[in-house]
């Protein structure tokens, strides 16, 4: 399985990962604040349609390996917050929510058992500009790599160095990707 995300429709990124199961374990890493905080962002999430979401990103705390925050992300050094609303929740297989951080986008997590493993599909929709699409792609790639490390009992990789590596790849790969808003390039 290629671990790079792909643009499936204008402004929509899809990323897949095969994770060690069972499905309830992976669901807990998506929905439990403490577990989610180990690979993505902690914060409250009401697991029902219409439920509030607050994701508190602290990238420097995702790995015990310390690194310098790139200068262009210094304003996020102490954290960043994304808010939203759960639009669908079907435990332990489907979770969809809006993400508001500047503009409003939508993220769906789908889980499907594959033997002893679980296929996780993350779909991030309504990404309107190229810079955000590259950042979203690099971010998901990096966060999901940390989740893979956590679920396999490995020391998680540091966020910023891995993010920068993937940002270069996605910048090249998505140079002509279609966007959600017409006229954006």
The CATH class name reads Alpha Beta
Number of domains: 1
Number of helices: 4
Helix content percent band: 25-40%
| Main sheet summary | 7 strands, antiparallel
Low-confidence stretches: none
The CATH topology label is Alpha-D-Glucose-1,6-Bisphosphate, Chain A, domain 4
- Determine the structural class based on helices, strands and strand pairing: alpha+beta
Residues in β-strands, percent: 25-35%
Q: Specify the overall morphology.
A: globular
The CATH homologous superfamily:
START domain
- Strands, total number: 7
Radius of gyration equals 16 Å
Question: H/E order of the elements?
Answer: EEHHEEEEEHH
How would you sum up this structure, described in words?
This protein is of the alpha+beta class. It has one domain (6-173): Alpha-D-Glucose-1,6-Bisphosphate, Chain A, domain 4, CATH 3.30.530.20. Helices cover 27% and strands 32% of the residues. It contains four helices and seven strands, in the order ββααβββββαα. The chain has helices at 23-31, 33-36, 130-151, 159-173, and strands at residues 6-9, 12-20, 52-57, 80-90, 94-101, 103-114, 117-125. A seven-stranded antiparallel beta sheet has the order 1-2-7-6-5-4-3, with helices on one face. α3 (130-151) packs across α4 (159-173). The two termini are 29 Å apart.
